[in-house]
UniProtKB/TrEMBL annotation:
The keyword Metal-binding applies. Its cofactor is Zn(2+). One of its GO terms (molecular function) is oxidoreductase activity, acting on the CH-OH group of donors, NAD or NADP as acceptor. This is L-iditol 2-dehydrogenase. Keywords: Metal-binding, Oxidoreductase, Zinc. Pfam families: ADH_N, ADH_zinc_N. PROSITE patterns: ADH_ZINC (PS00059). The keyword Zinc applies. It comes from the Bacteria. Residues 8-315 form the Enoyl reductase (ER) domain.
């Protein structure tokens, strides 16, 4: 099979390697594609803790495709089932996953790009956020996750204030139902503006979805007394120094919305599949850029640089 291997900071190549074989309780997926995650960017940049080369297909964890082989003991899926997979080497033509870490895709989704893992991630963040009708919710950072969360929050009757540095992302947020959109630029001006929009109360729930220090600081400032600060951004680039005085004084509930239980992750991907199947979520326009496997480097660079019109990249197998 062909598999992408990251050979050094900002460097990759496609190699021909043996197909993986499913072990007991596993399935092999002939991949149709794999989403590119913002969490790929720090390893792509080559921090000190990163080891090169990656395993074949390494960094790819948002794959979907068709089951083409099953290991012994597998009864939950059969060869030919189209599935979203929670696996770890999906920048390749094939990957293996535990049978309980694949989620069947219904016929209504045939032909659709479907990176199930990030959709499940968004569903989990929404679940952990506890958003209810009538609340005011700020979402700091409108990428793929922020856009989906905007739709989920408005769908239950919350008022969403979306913040992003890019005009295109704010346009997407408006399409997904945001009541207010603000350019993510001036720290104190944004605090003043959100205070004005909320009559000085600030927001019931604030979701930080950037993964950088300043947006996290801003998110805390936008959260009302006894409000909920939800950390959805993936913070990989070092320790954080936070304003604990503010967190204490306002009595914030702080939620780290990253899930690590594989069973829960599979459950929330199933929820995402049903949300798309039922029409509750329409994500077709959110996968804005598709690249062949040989151009994984371009997909990663676009995810880093976010050109105009970019929201989410996928690698597709051809």
């Amino acid at each position: 099979m062909r598999a992408a291997v990251v050979t050094g900071p900002g460097q990759m190549e496609v190699r021909h390697v043996p197909r993986p074989e499913p072990e007991t309780g596993q399935v092999r997926i002939k991949l149709e594609g794999c989403g590119v995650c913002a969490s790929n960017l720090t390893p792509w940049a080559g921090p000190e803790w990163m080891t090169f080369p990656t395993s074949p297909g390494g960094l790819g964890h948002e794959g979907w495709g068709v089951v083409d082989a099953v290991g012994s003991g597998v009864t939950s899926v059969v060869v030919g089932d189209r599935v979203a997979a929670l696996s770890h080497n999906s920048f390749a033509e094939y990957d293996v996953a535990d049978a309980d870490a694949v989620v069947p895709l219904p016929p209504e989704l045939d032909g659709m790009l479907f990176a199930g893992e990030p959709l499940g991630c968004a569903m989990n963040i929404f679940r952990r956020s506890g958003i209810e009708a009538g609340q005011t919710v700020a979402i700091v950072g409108i990428g793929f996750l922020g856009a989906v969360l905007t739709r989920l929050a408005t769908d239950v009757g919350a008022r969403v204030i979306a913040l992003s540095r890019r005009p295109y992302s704010l346009e997407v947020a408006r399409r997904m139902g945001a009541a207010e959109t603000l350019v993510l630029d001036d720290h104190y001006a944004l605090i003043a503006k959100v205070s004005e929009l909320t009559d000085g109360r600030f927001c019931d729930v604030v979701i930080e979805a950037v993964g950088k220090a300043w947006p996290l600081d801003l998110a805390a400032e936008l959260t009302r007394e006894r409000g909920r600060l939800v950390i959805a951004g993936y913070h990989q680039d070092g320790p954080r120094q936070i304003n604990m005085q503010l967190w204490n004084w306002r009595g914030l509930d702080v939620v780290n919305a990253h899930e690590r239980d594989p069973a829960v992750y599979a459950e929330i991907v199933r929820e995402a599949v049903e949300a798309v199947r039922s029409g509750r979520l329409d994500v077709r326009d959110l996968f804005t850029h598709a690249y062949p496997l040989e151009q994984l480097d371009e997909a990663l660079n676009a995810t880093r640089d976010r050109p105009d019109g970019f929201l989410k990249a996928v690698v597709v197998m051809r």
